[in-house]
Amino acid sequence: MKTLPKSRLNTFAWKIVPFSIVGGIIDIGIVALSSRLAGSLVGKELNDLIPGLNVFNNSIEEQAIILVCLFVILSWLGSFAKIFRLMFIESLTAQIWRDISNGILFKLIGQPYNYFLTTKSSSISSQILANMQNIADLIIRPILLMITSIILICSVSLALSLVLGLRAIILLLFLAISFFILSSFVVPYLRISSLQNVRLNAKFSSLLNQILLSIRDIHLTQSRDYFESKFVLIGKSAQRFQWRAKLLPDVPRIVIEPLAISFIFLVALMPYIYGSDYQNLASNLIPFVATFIVSLVKLTPPLQDLFRSITTVRGGLPEIDAALLYLELNDSNRGFIPSTSLSPDGIFPRREISLVKINYKYPGSNNYALKAISINLPVGSRIALMGPTGSGKSTISNILLAHLQPTSGQMRLDGEPLDDNEISSWQRCCSEVSQDFTLIDSSVLENIAFGCRPDEVDLDDVLEAISAAQLTDLIEEMPYGLNTLIGENGLNLSGGQRQRLALARAFYRNTKFLILDEATSALDQKTETEIINSLKIIGRRCTTVVIAHRLNTLSKCDFIYEIKDGEVISSGTYQDLCNPEHPLGISVKV
Ligand SMILES: Nc1ncnc2c1ncn2[C@@H]1O[C@H](COP(=O)(O)OP(=O)(O)OP(=O)(O)O)[C@@H](O)[C@H]1O
Ligand SMILES: [Mg+2]
């Protein structure tokens, strides 16, 4: 909460609190008026408490008319005060919701890549959304309502005790204590329900996500029943907690209503039962009950809000813990540091990029994915990594891109180890087409000029990247050219078209270091050759790492490393690969 801007506090202090106080004063007026009105209806003489205000010295009928008029006016004013109060509460809640969601996103986006390896990304987004919503619904709005309700309740109670005296105070105290006892019973159940609610909601949306992403497999494997029943099962358990979480906060209030009514009459009648003073019964009882009932009518909404808010906040505390976890994430010093130090040109090596005895173990894994990897990438060369699936090629690429920090060993630029505070400079030299790239649900242009504001986009560079990625013909055929929308993750494109778009994105950045992780696997040989050839033009002296299986791709590389089980087992040129005597040739058996 420390991170909230000061203007939020100002909204609270200068808008919500004043309107609550105005509402409270109006309520005091209404209670006092109703007491007088009831009194005047049973013919009681009224003494003015407010000196100089002689309106009540008229006849009883005239008094009643004036009182009714005042009553009506105050009711209108009260309603307006209420509208403004609620408006400020809702807008402040929305502002704080936005503050918190911004805070969470800013923290998350700055986390190092391996944070996302340990967090299940399909559930993380829905969990974050649920948390942010719940903080607004279960914490902020209830707390604001609580404070304003307390102001209103105090005002009405003050009026009530002024008009009706000790009996009223005892009655109010009794009602408050009963409520707290009742709500203490409810809170533990509510807390469990709201915890389960968060958990099941995350499960629910993760499953929904999986279903939508695997729809083709579901059709092919005829596994509709399996997923449907899984969905229904989670829905069933979620339903139980959902209705409890909604109903439970209301239970104490619902029980307290009849309790209040029973006791009002009991307290009001008590003196007459014991004192047998039946003569004044009607003239005293009616104003008392009428005033108390008007007060209760006035008290009910803030009491309802207060009761509901207290129970909600007490039940919702686990939610705030979950959100605080995100807000309290450390600011990472890997990547995203405002780069004051080196420009990409400043950090880029003149001679070579090298990995020296790199070991890497994924978080939570027992085995090393990379074992003592040492490779050398002369600047301007095109190096290939090949090897069986799961051998560690993509992991090497992530180390080279500084997405992952080696468990031990060093990455060096011209022999100098890459420092943590140089990572953002280094990353600005790199582009990649990863094995599982994601396209954004936007236009072709925005996908190529990824992360650029419209005024920053260099259209000539975009066109050059498109031509290097062999996309010119396709884009000319598209209905809106560069502005054509490609659908979620490029749903409207073919596999090869998606891949070429990802290549164009990497080419557009025109960096000096490029990694293509099976980036041409979906392309036909001719297109692939054209793209590899055009790399020479677009990249000028771009140092390129190509991860590939195809001989055609490997033949265009200066040097090849063969990786197996996280180790370099052989290396050589394409000629060596074709030589059955060479270790590289032996294992590949061309
Ligand atoms: N996030 C992860 N957490 C734990 N282990 C991982 C993770 N990612 C990869 N691994 C493991 O690390 C090893 C190397 O994986 P990597 O993705 O680098 O292989 P690869 O050579 O790129 O394979 P492929 O050719 O199939 O893309 C594998 O054994 C894999 O199981
Ligand atoms: Mg891979």
Which terms summarize this structure?
590 residues; alpha/beta; ABC transporter transmembrane region fold; Rossmann fold; 3 domains; six-stranded mixed sheet; four-stranded antiparallel sheet; 10 strands; elongated; binds adenosine-5'-triphosphate; binds magnesium ion; ATP-binding; ATP binding; ABC-type multidrug transport system
Any chance you could write out the topology, listing elements then pairs?
Blueprint: H1 6-41, H2 60-109, H3 113-118, H4 121-164, H5 166-213, H6 215-220, H7 224-247, H8 251-275, H9 281-327, H10 344-347, E1 352-361, E2 368-378, E3 382-386, H11 393-400, E4 408-413, E5 416-417, H12 423-427, E6 430-433, H13 444-448, H14 459-468, H15 472-477, H16 495-508, E7 513-517, H17 525-539, E8 543-547, H18 551-554, E9 559-564, E10 567-572, H19 574-578, H20 583-588
Bound molecules: adenosine-5'-triphosphate and magnesium ion.
Domain ABC transmembrane type-1: 19-315
Keywords: ATP-binding, Membrane, Nucleotide-binding, Transmembrane, Transmembrane helix
GO molecular function: ABC-type transporter activity; ATP binding; ATP hydrolysis activity; ATPase-coupled lipid transmembrane transporter activity
Please, could you describe this protein's structure?
The chain has helices spanning 6-41, 60-109, 113-118, 121-164, 166-213, 215-220, 224-247, 251-275, 281-327, 344-347, 393-400, 423-427, 444-448, 459-468, 472-477, 495-508, 525-539, 551-554, 574-578, 583-588; strands spanning 352-361, 368-378, 382-386, 408-413, 416-417, 430-433, 513-517, 543-547, 559-564, 567-572. It is α/β, with parallel strands linked by helices and 590 residues long. The chain folds into 3 domains: 6-10 and 86-327, ABC transporter transmembrane region fold, CATH 1.20.1560; 351-429 and 512-590, Rossmann fold (3-Layer(aba) Sandwich); 438-510, Rossmann fold (3-Layer(aba) Sandwich), CATH 3.40.50.300. Strand 1 (352-361) and strand 2 form a beta hairpin. Helix 1 packs parallel to helix 4, helix 5 (166-213) runs antiparallel to helix 8 (251-275) and helix 8 (251-275) packs antiparallel against helix 9. The two termini are 64 Å apart. The structure holds adenosine-5'-triphosphate and magnesium ion. Magnesium ion binds next to helix 11.
